[in-house]
Amino acid sequence: MTTLVVGTVPPPGGEAAAQLAALASQLRATGERVEVLSPDRRSAAHHHGSITGPMLALQLIRRSRSCDGVVIAFGPGVPLAATAGRVERAVTLGLLGVALRSFSDVTLRLASPIPLPGGVGGRATAAMWSRATSIVVENEADRERVVLAPGVDAACLVVRPTAAPAHGGRSMAWNELHFDTADLRSQVQLAVRERAAEARRVNSARVELGAKGVLDDGAGPFSGTSARVSPPDPVVLARVFAGRVRRVLRKLATQP
Q1: Which range among 35-44, 203-212, 213-222, 225-234 shows the weakest confidence by mean pLDDT?
Q2: Which domains does the chain have, with CATH numbers?
């Protein structure tokens, strides 16, 4: 089985990205083939591209030809920007519901607060929720909101809080050092150790995910080879999507 993991993985993204990368690594450890699609070009992912708005559905349709399951990490801008209006919301979520029909196993991971402008309910979200085999939320309050949405199967809901970083937060930046104190040497050593530990975690994630590399942002220890950016071909995506829509509509028309 091949699973497509959609969302940001390290180096950027913080603890949520680290947990998504860990999930991808766990899937690979069970023998599954895993491909990671990230919107951030610095991520140690296999593919990079826009997944905001209708582009998420088009990306899923494109990748569904080689993937059986999908894990989507909903977060800021995925799948909706904070400024998305009613029309963009309806189009994006409607297309997403159609695209998810192509996968036999669908896991939706929702950051808190749930990043869906306009709420978790409504006609546009029903198809999306009904296709999910697992919906992961971070707390009971979010679970109570999602379970009331049309199309949601309560048995699919899982509460899994995002763990706090084991190292107590982000790494110390060099400009945060206090040069007027007597323990400057200790501060530098601590900063170096934290950066080295973070770099090891990133390198481990890259190896486990089988990614080719990340782009150097010039601001930390994450230098490396450039990952190949693979933007979708609009013409190919439009043809594939039109074909999928026709088949879905034809199937729906023949149902009693």
Answers
A1: 213-222
A2: 2-168+198-254 (3.40.50)
